[in-house]
Amino acid sequence: MYAFKELLEEQRKLDLNIIQTKKLDNEDRTLKKLTAFTTELGEMVNELPETFKFWANKNNDKQKALVEYVDGIHFILSLAADLGIEDFRILNAEVLTYTKPSFLEQVLYLYTIPNKLSKLPSQRWIEILMAAYIGLGQLIGFEWDEVVEAYHTKNKINHDRQEANY
């Protein structure tokens, strides 16, 4: 089982820091965050060229892919925080339910969920997106502990960037 209370609390602090640092108003940023998520998904896939770039002789960079993958986690959690979600859990069975047979099928599936979430923002769609995203991480070979550690590392970098007027 995957629990998100602690990560959600960290994400809320980062989001508040960004809102205060950038002096943002109360606009609905859902579409921007969903677009950012799909952008990070594309950046992550681009770090794994062996999976789809049949025309190129480039090697996968799993470490860079992990950094981009964690950026996607940040945006999912930020969307959850915007919905007022305090905590949620993803069961292993849910991850299996929302995981396709191959990496590329999973990537394409993940591109369909943000549109649904934009039309019906809900905890259930956040859970489906996170379960499918965890499934992608598993297909890549990421261990959950390394994902959480990378999240904490990137979260600190994101805070530092805000302090440096990124």
Q: Any chance you could write out the topology, listing elements then pairs?
A:
Blueprint lengths: L1 E2 L1 H18 L7 H17 L15 H21 L6 E2 L1 H6 L5 H17 L3 H18 L3 H20 L3
Antiparallel strand pairs: 1-2
Helix pairs in contact: 1-3, 1-7, 2-3, 2-5, 3-6, 3-7, 5-6
Order of helices and strands: EHHHEHHHH
> Which assembly state applies to the chains in this document?
single chain
CATH architect. name: Orthogonal Bundle
Number of helices: 7
Number of strands: 2
How far apart are the first and last residues' alpha carbons, in Å? 35 Å
Uncertain stretches of 5 or more adjacent residues: none
Labels describing this entry:
mainly alpha, 166 residues, two-stranded antiparallel ribbon, 7 helices, all-alpha NTP pyrophosphatase fold
Protein described:
The chain is mainly alpha-helical. The chain has one domain: Type II deoxyuridine triphosphatase (all-alpha NTP pyrophosphatase fold), CATH 1.10.4010. The protein has 7 helices and 2 strands; from the N terminus they run E-H-H-H-E-H-H-H-H. It has a two-stranded antiparallel ribbon with strand order 1-2. Helix 1 (5-22) crosses helix 3 (62-82), helix 1 (5-22) runs parallel beside helix 7 and helix 3 (62-82) packs across helix 7 (144-163). The chain is globular. The protein starts with a strand and ends with a helix.
Quick overview:
The protein has about 170 residues and is an all-alpha fold. About 70% of the residues lie in helices and about 0% in strands. The protein has a single domain, classed as Orthogonal Bundle (all-alpha NTP pyrophosphatase fold), CATH 1.10.4010.10.
